[in-house]
Amino acid sequence: MLFEFESTSFEKPKNMLFDLDEGFTKGNMFESLYDPYKNYVPKMLKPQNEREALLYNIYKLCFAMNDLNLYLDLNPDDEEAYETFKKYTQMYHKYLEEYEKKYQVLELSHDIFGKYTWLQKPWPWEEK
């Protein structure tokens, strides 16, 4: 036999999450699951103005919520992860509401201005 394992009981280690910026940049919120590609070093994005900063926060939170959602599908009893998911969801809605009040709606279902503003230009990604 190549390997022998001693049977001992141990507590499952807590899943350590990257902070929002690092998790978004690396494409994985979980430190233990991040597997870098060769020598690639992800580059952190730097918003240039308030609009970009709000949109960047929305992107980061949306990514983190989706990653945590996938994790919670497989680990529904992890209350710490669920609390983090709820916190990120509240933050996401705060930033989304602020962005949509100041600039434009990001989803058709959020067109709260009483008229069809969905197609107004420019889209956030079309700006220079």
Descriptive account of the structure:
- The protein has 128 residues and is mainly α.
- It has a domain at 20-33 and 45-107 and 115-126.
- The protein has three helices and no strands.
- It has helices at residues 20-26, 50-74, 79-102.
- Mean pLDDT is 82; it is low at 1-13.
Taken as a percent bin, the fraction of beta residues is under 5%
Q: Helix/strand/pairing class, anyone?
A: mainly alpha
Shape: globular
Number of H- or I-type helical stretches: 3
Q: Radius of gyration, Cα only, in angstroms?
A: 19 Å
Low-confidence stretches: 1-13
Q: How would a crystallographer describe the biggest sheet?
A: none
Helical content class? 40-55%
Secondary-structure element pattern, one letter each: HHH
In total, the number of strands is 0
Distance N terminus to C terminus?
63 Å
Mean pLDDT: 82
Keyphrases for this structure?
128 residues, mainly alpha, 44% helix, disordered N terminus
In short:
The protein has 128 residues and is an all-alpha fold.
SSE layout and pairing:
Blueprint: H1 20-26, H2 50-74, H3 79-102
Helix pairs in contact: 1-2, 2-3
